[in-house]
UniProtKB/TrEMBL annotation:
The keyword Disulfide bond does not apply. This is Uncharacterized protein. Transmembrane segments: none annotated. Keywords: Calcium, Secreted, Signal. SUPFAM superfamilies: Metalloproteases ('zincins'), catalytic domain. It comes from Corallococcus sicarius.
């Protein structure tokens, strides 16, 4: 907890007629993922915050007494006021030697933390990171402090030593885990996602892969084909999206789903959208779009919104892509040249959007991704110290790691 926050808290408590009982101390605590270790950790008492007593009322059992929650502006009835799967306690006071507050955590606004390590010569530029940070900051997500957006903390940590930087991680996860074990601090494990900007895995030219959906870890491998800044940013957001529970069709695995306007759709991973006059803008889907049939594509009606999405919201989308080409359009709710024949056809026609060799598929309505994000990460649950760390979901993964497919491939002709 930053010293300024401590002083403000102490002053507020003094105003309320309470005495502070000293600074918080952070004990060392094992942050391992086995259920046995989780049960042991759950029994470890949290250090009592300044202003709380052993007898103080703590309605939500998060380790912060009600009167201090009143000062902090957090909800005394919720251990996680902002719903980001980081407890109010750990976002305010830290735990296990890790001070999330010093890293910018706010218990009243959603935070996502990612440690970013990188191979020699593959450190991502700040401009690359900022593209993704800006996308999260612009998310249509409400917070208890009255703000919108999610604070994405991309913590660029360290370069992987040349001796450890295997140019082809094969098999991918055992070799990735060897790097993670050496370079990822255990204290961060309950709270951070982990990624490495690497070269290649499993002998292919895939841009990256997630360790399941949702998950804690993901790998970025654009080094094998010299990925551009735009491709790096789009892939970073795409793979992080898998970590947050999003699939290639949002809530299904239907890739190239034409009515799914998201960076999770391969059509947009490397290119982004035209949104708000900005070319290459990154975004998860913030709109719900009605079902569309490959057998009856109609340029003159384009897409239809599904409530609560409005025509106005859908009409903000430009730069739409189908079959690896950006097509002409007025807006996503007006005229769209789906087949890219440089004209608007007055009759419906068939079009194979998902490239499976037929034009008979019907794509269900797409989801609003931002409303479907899973913050607990899928690895250890990112839960509260002193409280259960196991997931409340029945299944740890929606898509198991061994069932993950390589994500969008780059052009091997550009490989070094």
């Amino acid at each position: 907890m930053p010293q300024l926050h401590k002083c403000l808290l102490t002053a507020s408590l003094a105003f309320l007629g309470l005495s502070a009982c000293g600074d918080v101390t952070s004990p060392d605590a094992a942050q391992r993922s086995t259920r046995q270790d989780e049960m042991v950790a759950e029994a470890v008492p949290l250090p009592i915050p300044a202003g709380c007593l052993l007898t103080s009322l703590d309605t939500d059992g998060d380790g912060i007494c009600n009167v201090v929650e009143l000062v902090l502006g957090t909800d005394p009835n919720k251990a996680d006021t902002d719903g980001d799967s980081l407890s109010d306690y750990v976002e305010t006071f830290g735990f296990g030697g890790l001070d999330l507050s010093a890293l910018g955590a706010n218990p009243r606004k959603k935070d996502v933390f990612v440690e970013v390590d990188y191979y020699p010569n593959l450190r991502p530029s700040q401009a690359t990171l900022d593209k993704v940070i800006t996308a999260f900051a612009s998310a249509p997500v409400s917070n208890p402090n009255g703000s919108t957006g999610i604070t994405l903390h991309l913590v660029v940590d360290q370069q992987i030593a040349a001796a450890d930087a295997d140019m082809d991680l094969n098999p991918v996860w055992p070799e990735f885990n060897a790097i993670k074990t050496k370079y990822f601090a255990a204290a961060r494990a309950p709270y951070f996602h982990y990624t490495v900007f690497a070269n290649q895995y499993d002998g292919n030219f895939s841009s990256g892969i997630s360790f399941g959906i949702p998950a804690q870890d993901f790998l970025l491998t654009l080094g094998s084909f010299n990925g551009t800044e735009q491709q790096q940013a789009g892939t970073l957001m795409h793979e992080l999206g898998h970590n947050l529970g999003l699939r290639h069709g949002g809530n299904d695995d239907s890739n190239y789903k034409p009515n799914y306007l998201s960076i999770m759709n391969y059509e947009y991973q490397f290119h982004g959208f035209e949104l708000g006059g900005k070319v290459g803008a990154l975004d998860y889907s913030r709109v719900q779009v009605a079902s569309i049939s490959e057998a009856a594509v109609y340029d003159l009606t384009a897409f239809a919104p599904v409530a609560p999405t409005t025509e106005t919201e859908l009409g903000k989308y430009y730069g739409l892509r189908f079959n690896d080409a950006q097509v002409s359009m007025f807006s996503a709710t007006d005229f769209v040249d789906f087949n890219n024949n440089r004209q608007y056809d007055f009759n419906p026609y068939a079009l194979d959007f998902n490239r499976d060799g037929d034009a008979t598929d019907v794509f269900p309505a797409s989801q609003n991704d931002w409303a479907a994000v899973i913050y607990d990460g899928g690895q250890i649950g990112f839960a509260t110290p002193g409280m259960p760390r196991h997931l409340d979901r029945e299944e740890r993964f929606l898509v198991a790691p061994e069932e993950m497919e390589p994500c969008l491939s780059g052009d091997p002709d550009r490989a070094p």
